[in-house]
């Protein structure tokens, strides 16, 4: 029987009413007590790593989670992290970059309602997560929610209240879980006996997201240049900048790049990604500047991958190489 460690970090699954709204208060052991059937799947131990609303979870906490898994990696067959849903997709993506090529599964889950409630989705999500983590063919970082198994780099929260909160963006779900049965859609990755993951312990959190709206000027980009190492410009459609390669935004882009900063352009459209070669407003920009394009990466993956890449190097050529190197099928060009 597999030995699985649960790392509790808070979130709705662990929340109780405080008089000022829900706040995480339920411990890891109390969470497990609500799903005794997990004991039939595997041997379980639990650690209370933190107890935070996921709105408050950021890069320092991702590093703490990765370090906790690294410290215990040899002692367990897999890991389940309970987490709030609001930033769960960011955490899943970040851990995919901080823990690469893991022969053991690292599963992230949570719920839209507290596990203490009768009509919660927490008990099913937790059971499904342990079911997946205990399977011998499960590897790497995944998000398990509402019966779906999603690659850590491909998850996005699309509904704020419904139980089917997460979707797998521009990539097939790895598997589904129906009535306690794991049904795989994709062949699991094969690892050689004795394979070890690669852990990373540095992130550069000075990454800015700037979402363009029609009529928006370039002032904000210029004013923020000294505070950030990289910016993701979230543009329209398949990608481009208002004014193309010669407008005010292009001038601001030139100033960022001249200061040694990194710029990634991606689309605001949820599915199907960008292709800046299609229209003049995109093609001019890509011909004039050494920008990177996110293609069909999710925002969560693009942002956390940039943090990971910039944590490893400041060399522009190496930044480009690492950003475009696929990790868990995060980018398909």
Description:
The protein has about 325 residues and is α/β, with parallel strands linked by helices. It has nine helices and 18 strands. The chain has an eight-stranded mixed sheet, with helices on both faces. A hairpin with an 8-residue loop joins strand 10 (about 155) and strand 11 (about 165-170). The radius of gyration is 21 Å and the shape is globular. The mean pLDDT is about 95.
Question: Which key terms come to mind for this protein?
Answer:
single chain; 333 residues; alpha/beta; eight-stranded mixed β-sheet; four-stranded parallel β-sheet; 9 helices
Element layout with pairings:
Blueprint: E1 3-10, E2 15-17, E3 22-24, H1 28-33, E4 43-52, H2 59-72, E5 78-82, H3 88-98, E6 99-100, E7 106-109, H4 122-133, E8 141-145, E9 148-151, E10 155-157, E11 166-168, E12 175-178, E13 181-184, E14 198-199, E15 207-211, H5 219-223, E16 230-235, H6 248-258, E17 262-267, H7 280-288, E18 292-293, H8 299-312, H9 316-324
Helix pairs in contact: 2-3, 3-8
């Amino acid at each position: 029987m597999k030995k699985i460690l649960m790392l509790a970090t808070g979130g709705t699954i662990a929340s109780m009413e405080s008089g000022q709204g829900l706040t995480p208060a339920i411990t890891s052991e109390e969470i497990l007590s609500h799903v005794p059937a997990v004991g039939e799947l595997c041997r379980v131990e639990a650690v209370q790593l933190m107890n935070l609303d996921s709105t408050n979870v950021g890069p320092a906490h991702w590093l703490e989670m990765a370090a906790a898994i690294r410290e215990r990696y040899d002692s367990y067959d897999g890991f389940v992290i309970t987490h709030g849903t609001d930033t769960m997709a960011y955490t899943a993506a970040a851990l995919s970059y901080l823990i690469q090529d893991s022969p053991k599964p690292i599963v992230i889950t949570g719920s839209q309602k507290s596990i203490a409630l009768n009509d919660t989705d927490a008990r099913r999500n937790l059971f499904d997560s342990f079911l997946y983590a205990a399977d011998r063919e499960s590897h790497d970082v995944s998000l398990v929610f509402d019966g779906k198994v999603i690659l850590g780099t491909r998850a996005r929260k699309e509904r704020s209240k419904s139980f089917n909160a997460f979707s797998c963006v521009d990539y097939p779900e790895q598997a589904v879980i129906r009535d306690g049965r794991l049904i795989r859609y994709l062949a699991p990755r094969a690892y050689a006996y004795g394979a070890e993951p690669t852990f990373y312990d540095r992130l550069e959190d000075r990454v800015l997201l700037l979402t363009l709206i029609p009529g928006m000027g370039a002032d904000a980009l210029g004013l923020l240049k000294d505070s950030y190492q990289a910016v993701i410009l979230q543009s329209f459609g398949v990608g481009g900048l208002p004014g193309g390669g010669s407008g005010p935004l292009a001038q601001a882009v030139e100033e960022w790049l001249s200061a040694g900063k990194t710029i990634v352009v991606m689309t605001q459209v949820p599915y199907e990604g960008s292709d800046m070669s299609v229209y003049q407003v995109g093609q001019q920009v890509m011909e004039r500047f050494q920008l990177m394009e996110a293609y069909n990466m999710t925002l969560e993956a693009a942002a956390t991958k940039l943090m990971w890449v910039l944590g490893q190097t400041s060399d522009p050529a190496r930044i480009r190489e690492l950003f475009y190197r696929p990790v868990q099928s995060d980018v398909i060009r």
